[in-house]
Amino acid sequence: MRSLWWSLLVVQILFLLGFSNGESPYRWYDWNISYGDIYPLGVKQQGILINGQFPGPSIDSVTNDNLIINIFNSLDEPFLLSWNGIQQRRNSWQDGVYGTNCPIPPGQNFTYILQVKDQIGSFFYFPSLAMHKAAGGYGGITIRSRPMIPVPFPPPTGDYTILVGDWFKQNHTDLKAILDGGNDLPFPDGILFNGRGSNGLTFTVDQGRTHRFRISNVGLTTAINFRIQGHKMLLVEAEGTHTLQNTYESLDIHLGQSYSVLVTMDQPGQDYYIVASTRFTSPVLTATSILHYSNSAGSISGPPPGGPTIEIDWSLNQARSIRQNLTASGPRPNPQGSYHYGLVNTTRTIRLANSAPMINGKKRYAVNSVSFIPADTPLKLADYFKIPGVFNLGSIQDYPTGGGGYFQTSVMAADFRAYFEVVFENPEDTVQSWHIDGHIFFVVGMDGGQWSTASRLNYNLRDGISRCTIQVYPKSWTALYMPLDNVGMWNIRSENWARQYLGQQFYLRVYSPVNSWRDEYPIPKGALLCGRASGRRTRPL
Asked: Would residue 275 count as lying in a domain?
């Protein structure tokens, strides 16, 4: 039966690819999601494993590859995976969040059919439901350039993925219960490198050679600072964009963000600390891994190097220095700077302010006073089947209302090929991190205080970094230009997972009136249906 199922799936996928990209290679993955005992901080926990692994298997791909990922859910609860930074061109059906997909029921499977269309860079996948992310289930995604596309640096000797982030000793169900009770999460218990605590991981390198490190912050609540004892880091990529090649001694990586750095092994042959520490917290958590020279003649000496702790201006200045390499090719041979984002007229300004209201006596989080609550049916399915009463367009305002918080399944309407100015405003005293699914945006400005139209005078309209996740400092703002070039239902969310779970998110419906595969793929034949969409038909093969 299993071989028959795979044969039928191959037929369906080849049919789809024949319409969309028959020339592009495809890669097959078969993943089993299960519980398992893990001990990342020395305490037994219930982890979420993929094929018995924590973290899960890495995905190594090339621009335009098709990824066919069959997920079998062996948990006793529904499950979804989402793909942080993968744009899902014309295909929000595969985004893997509850607003677009029905959860995979226990004992059943679902096959994601993704294409990493016109993308390069370093990303990660993660479980998107409840607090599953606190139990693992995440892994790295690498998208390499096609062989004929120039890369603005020589091929490194080694290429390492580092998934770093804060971690709690409590199981994910306990953390969820804390939030459901209207309380804040406790302070994290530690930091993990690729699922291991301090000194649990060693990276072996060759003296005199240059190695690439792809670093993602997969944590739940805190930004981290990353550094390597005695070594400089040359930043070369941020979430799929080649950057100006600035050198840093340490790098702030906010929740949900990914970077690539090149490190030349130019020190004496011994072992060195790789360090991650929390930012803007008290106390400061620190964890280390080992950089081991293959010709090492000595062990690590001295304490781990210190880094910045609560300094906001330091982080802000570093963030402003991360800019786009205009002459480098991206996923296509034309230079990244050939798209002059600063010369395009914006069609609409969206101001989004986060807040932490009490609603019905419980702590919630909100955007423009709206605390998001999931509907009984995924929004994308309700939109496709025209099911009334699931959500209303315009249920979140374009600007802060200043009113008290309230519940709503918030969906903002937007037109395909519009060009948005988005301003994230943070009146709170904690740093925020925001992610936008399905799109990249250009960071044109960030500063302290209140944003106003006069703030546009200092926008960077030439080489602002393009990415999909951005920080907003306390009592500050961050402004973006974003082309709405991808039809679908897209999640805009806090990357602080407690805030996201308690309502700091909404959906952007990018709409085209043209019913054409040119703008959006049709609903997959194998789409899971649930809620008020149960029993309906997808489409004939």
From this structure: yes
pLDDT band at 298 (very low <50, low <70, confident <90, very high): confident
Q: Residue 483 is which amino acid?
A: P
Average pLDDT value for residue range 255-283: 98
Residue 278 belongs to domain spanning? 158-324
Judgement on whether residues 89 and 175 belong to the same structural domain of the protein:
no
Residue 498 three-state SS: helix
Asked if the structure places residue 7 within a domain, the reply is no
CATH of the domain at 113: 2.60.40.420
For residues 169 and 303, state if they share a domain: yes
What dihedral do alpha carbons 437, 279, 129, 59 form, nearest 10°?
A: 60
- Residue owning tokens 């802060």: 400
Residue 153 lies in a domain: no
Do 133 and 280 lie in one domain? The reply is no
User: From CA 512, how far away is CA 519, in angstroms rounded?
Assistant: 7
Average pLDDT over residues 497-508: 98
Whole-number Å distance between alpha carbons of 305 and 228: 8
Q: Is the pLDDT of residue 1 over 90?
A: no
As a residue count, the chain comes to 541
Residue 7 has pLDDT above 50, yes or no: no
Amino acid at 337: G
For residue range 337-350, what is the model confidence (pLDDT) as tens digits? 999 999 999 999 99
CA 127/CA 139 separation, integer angstroms: 10
Residue appearing with tokens 């080649």: 242
- C-alpha 70/C-alpha 48 separation (Å) is 17
Tally of domains in the chain:
3
User: Which of 373, 404, 368, 364 is closest to 391 using CA atoms?
Assistant: 373
Count CB neighbours of 477 within 10 A: 23
- pLDDT, mean over the chain: 95
State how far the Cα of 305 lies from the Cα of 94, in Å rounded to an integer.
42
Q: What is the pLDDT of residue 540?
A: 60
Order of strands, sheet of 419-426, starting from the edge strand that comes earlier in the sequence: 406-408, 370-372, 366-367, 348-355, 419-426, 476-483, 441-448, 466-467
| DSSP state letters, 168-211 | -SS-HHHHHHHHHTT-------EEEETTB-TT--EEEE-TT-EE
Lookup result for tokens 């960071």: 443
Query: Do residues 224 and 218 lie in contact, with contact meaning Cβ atoms separated by under 8 Å?
Result: no
Task: Report the alpha-carbon distance of residue 495 to residue 38 in Å, rounded.
Answer: 24
Ramachandran angles phi, psi of 498, nearest 5°:
-70, -40
Q: What is the pLDDT of residue 301?
A: 87
pLDDT (tens digit per residue) in 186-226 = 999 999 999 999 999 999 999 999 999 999 999 999 999 99
